[in-house]
Amino acid sequence: MKLKFNRLSLRFLRNFALLIMIPVFVFGLFINFYYNKYLIEQAELQMSRTVDTMAENLNSQIKNLSILSSALVHNSAFIKTIKAYNLSTDPKDDYYLLEEIDHLISNMFLYTNKIGTIYAYLADKPVYVYRNYPIVNNLPAVPLLAETTMHEDKVHENLVYIDDDLFSLYQTRNTELQKPLLVLSIYPDSFEYERLLEKLVFAFQLDLLDNIQKGSFGDYHLYITDKDQQIILADRNMPEQLRAITGIQKHGNASQPQHSGDRWLITGQNIPFTGWNIYYAAEKQVISAPFTRIKQLFNLGIAIIVFLFIWYSLLFFHNMVTPVNALISKMHLVKNGDYTVAAEATGPEEIQNLVLSFNTMIAEVKQLTEERETNEKERSRLEQEALQYQINPHFIANTLNSIRLMAIMNKDDHIKDMTASLMRLINDSFRSNGSCIRLDEELQNITGYIHIMKVRFGNRIELIDHTPANLADRQLLKMLIQPIVENSIVHGFSEMKGRCTIEISAELKQIADEEQPGKLLITIRDNGKGCSIDPNSPFPSSQSRNARGFTSLGLQNVHKRIILHYGNEFGLTMNSTIGKETSVIIALPNLTALEAPDV
């Protein structure tokens, strides 16, 4: 199965990109920026705390070692033994005195728990050396030591001097084996030592310095600079780009981060006792590396999801659009008049239901078409029969005309007038020019009908016409008023002996919708004996009909004709008071000749 983009799938994917993918991408960039910024800030805070702790620890250790070194210089037993050793000429005494010096110094190292070496520069004896870490066997010669110390003009007695060169006392051919040593120099009081001891040099190994040199902090880098911002100690893995970055910005006693462009994050702190600065540095890329890996995995996951979604969209719309297109092609055939088509129900369940509904609809249309053709044939047959039936009304009209001529010849005006009225009714009833008639013409027919009824009931029947002249052109169905007038005469006046009056009036009633033409209300009122009205219909009750010997078929016929032509909002309304009167209101649309349908 070959999948391809169609207009529906392209429109769907475009909306998917605009409404989901682009907002997710923008939101991802926003989250990435601020989360990365948050990681940098947290790393900066952690690095600042770490470097502050290291600076405080290193400052404390150097300060304590300086105090202990000064304490040794001022130790009376040490002063006395140094004097005795310097003045001794007996080798045996020298041996015991050196052991005593070793004992005093070893107590200091035992107390400090440090590894180191002490050099004592004596006036009349060789340099005395004490060391408690045997791995250092290649210490430099004494002249080199002398060169690394301070000049005489800068020396102050009983002060501790810290050497900025941490590798001055540890020289090897293999620079990888060099270790940093903290070097402290003390120039004792000349009077107290009687100029027999020129200076003492203390060299201590500190774990923190060793760890900095080894690069024991992973991807983070530590380095120490002197007061002139020259690096005196850095880890072996420190990049050259970072070695060029020095300096510290201080705010009170707290250090501030140092940034080199967008690559490095550097925090530093001052070591007050030495004047050094210790720095903690890391690449921002290293700090955000865990998040970067997560972001890469997230992006890969998003890419896979988008790919699967596009593939699923193509598959989904292929399964949906293909049967829809097939259905559309079937519809074109139906449009051209082919009702024998049937679409195949494939695709999703909803599409299958649509296809089945289409097939059912086509079958029903085919059936209705066949029924319409059958009805058309039946209609043609009935029209032919109707043409034949028109012969009978013409025959009756011609016969009545002959009777009217005979009445004229015999000068019988009653027969002549009655025949003329009957001919008018027949002609209006069977005319073929539509089913509607003007209101004034319908009233003329009612007048003719009353004339005929007077022959039967006498002159006691009177018709009173109250219809306004401006409503004479209103259109209504033929023979709507006559059945109601007939019902008044035949049933309302059947047992009356006095004057029988039928009043006809008409009025217009506007409805709520001003765009509609309103209603034409025609009221036929008689002073007959009345009847009881069925509460469930606008016609006389069955009890009243049975008691008075008449039916309401004529009224029902008029009511149904009105509803069939104009709708349920129109029709008859009947009110009656027994022994007094009966009124029938015909509600019709307000139509003129131009507005009335030719039915």
Could you characterize what this model shows?
The chain is α+β, with helices and mostly antiparallel strands. The chain is built from 16 helices and 19 strands. It has a five-stranded antiparallel β-sheet with strand order 2-1-5-4-3. It has a five-stranded antiparallel β-sheet with strand order 7-6-12-11-10. The two termini are 59 Å apart. About 7% of the residues have low confidence.
Share of β-strand residues: 15-25%
Number of helices: 16
Helix content: 40-55%
**Number of beta strands:** 19
Which blocks of ≥5 consecutive residues have pLDDT under 50? Answer: 135-153, 247-260, 386-391, 546-550
Helix-strand category: alpha+beta
Radius of gyration: 63 Å
Sum up the overall morphology in one term. Answer: rod-shaped
Strand order of the largest sheet: 2-1-5-4-3
Straight-line distance between termini: 59 Å
Sheet of most strands: 5 strands, antiparallel
